[in-house]
Amino acid sequence: MTELRPGELTCPSPEDTLESDMDCDRPIFSVSAGGPKRAGGAGAPSPAAAAAASDAESGVFSVGCELCAEHDSELDWFCGTERKLICVRCASVGSCQGHAVFPLAARVTAVRNRLVDVCEKIQLQALRIEKFIDHTLAAKEQNLQAAASRAREQVLARVGAAREALEEEEQRLLEEVHREEERVEQCLLTQRAHWSQALASLSQTRSHLVHTLTHTPDAQLVTSVQEIDERVEESEGVGEPCDTEQLSLNPGCSHSQLLRALWTTAVLLGPSARGSPQLKFDRRTVSPLLSVSEDSCTLTFLHRKPRQSPCYDPARFDYWPNALGSPAMSSGTHSWVVDVGQSGAFKVGVCYAALERKGSGNQARLGHNGQSWVLSHYDGEYSFCHAGAKVPLPLVRRPGRIGLLLDWDSHTLLFYEPDSAAVLHAVQQRFSAPLLAAFAVTDRSITIVH
């Protein structure tokens, strides 16, 4: 056998090609109990083959147990280029000359070390997974049961407190309505008794005067003037009946801050909460000082006056920077949200369709007449405006969006903050005509949010 001298072969470190070699489909090394027959042993296994077989049975794999078919030399080298076992002559003068080769024993040692490392890592990973299952997940299951139980108790406690408060408020309001009903009934009975007696007295006086007129002789009639005057004075003293608020149920008897807050929250956040997706700016009403987006949902203030005024339209505001929404609202419950985060000066609210559109007077100015109700933000201050009266609204923070809720049946208009459902201002007003959403802006833009 020719000895392999240093410098004749390229022998990379086993670790350099270990990872790429492990991807090979064929075995990195092979073990065989038999091999090419040597001359002199008719079918008898060689000592190396017998040793390999013994090692295979014991679980210890041996190298150098096969012979090269071409050179009849022991396959104790490994060709990394062709990924096969070779002998020393294959590497020096054979088909693998110039390839990356290295001793098989070193390769086997590197692979075994790598497998030991991999097995240790797998074992550690398995231990971590086992610990995660036995400790972390088990603890999470226990915590889940405790947390779910606390959450249920919290829900029941809060709903119970709300239900108890609502039941108490319900009882108080029903008693208040009942007392108010009894008061009005007593007033009605008193008025009925008084005016029934007055009616009887008037009827008796009239009958007496008619009898005097028709049956008293002229001479006696002249002498009865004083008696007639007394009867007339008595009838005039009865007075005229007058309808007063005391004869009607006071609507304030059913008003409750708690009930209104709960009702508002239910309407705004409950399962049936809904907005008005069809609400948009009516282009016919938009002031020349404003521009409206293509989707009719954003209103922008124009810092420069447009060169050409739009064509005349009786519905258009020609002086104040106003615009109205459509459609009109005359029944049911309606809510919509306006994004005002970019504007420092705006108004949002409602108005009658008959609101004046022309001129610089207060009749066309939102919040300065009896036909509009708006929340206004100017100079950093918030206020509610109606009929020229201003109610300051001391808000803790500047809302980025403002919501409006109109409940026609209960004659209620609410301005609220959508993020917290906090009521900013409430209006109790018996509206007498259909309402339109009303807007004004003199800084940047506002947008109807759908």
TrEMBL record:
One Pfam assignment: PRY
Keywords, alphabetical: Coiled coil, Metal-binding, Zinc, Zinc-finger
Keyword Zinc among record annotations: yes
Residue ranges of every copy of the B30.2/SPRY domain listed in the record: 258-450
GO terms for MF: zinc ion binding
GO CC, alphabetical: cytoplasm
Region described as Disordered: 1-23
Gene3D superfamilies in the cross-refs: 2.60.120.920, Classic Zinc Finger
Ranges in a coiled coil: 152-183
Protein name listed in UniProt: B box and SPRY domain-containing protein-like
Organism of origin: Salarias fasciatus
Top-level taxonomy: Eukaryota, Metazoa, Chordata, Craniata, Vertebrata
Gene that produces this protein: bspry
